[in-house]
Amino acid sequence: MLRPHAMTQAGGITLLFAATMLLLVAATAAAMLQMLLAGRQLAAAGRDREIAFRAAEAALLEAEAELLAAAGGSDDRFGQWPAAGECGRGAQAALCNTAHAGTPVWQPWLHGLATGLALGVPASGVAVVPGATLPDAFAGSYTAPRYVAELLDDGPVLDEGWPALPRLRITAVGFGRSPAVRAVVQSIVQP
Fold first, then answer.
1. pLDDT tens readout for residues 22-50
2. Residues 6+ apart with CB under 8 A from 116
3. Where along the chain do its domains lie?
């Protein structure tokens, strides 16, 4: 038969062992929860970047199609260019002449400046090119992608007596679910 002193000593050791095991299980559960939350955050960031990239790509395709259609049409979209360092309005919306300006007009998009969101033409979200569709509300993005077209040359030059159309750099920006997540893509075209 055990003495009373030995029983309390055995109970103390058991209590200490059980408390240590409980602490170890709680620490393991907290570490697993932290790992799961970090994985979820990484997956959400990747999804936001993918949404932003696809929105920018769709806006770029829409801009290319719209500018090529304007070049082949009878409207006067390319008839008069804005002054150097300026962007057009009205029929010349999104056409920018940065040939002699130092900083490209789309530079604020890279830095996330709110003033840069007023620049360019918002993409309609209705794809004018097959395969350039975006899901509803730009896949959860609350900011429509935008694009600008910059004149790369000093202006249209004559090509065998006919006016040649200018080379354009089209820059499009797309946004993720958070406006802080953005992707910028570019293309150079000559209609």
1. 999 999 999 999 999 988 888 778 888 88
2. 106, 107, 108, 109
3. 4-189
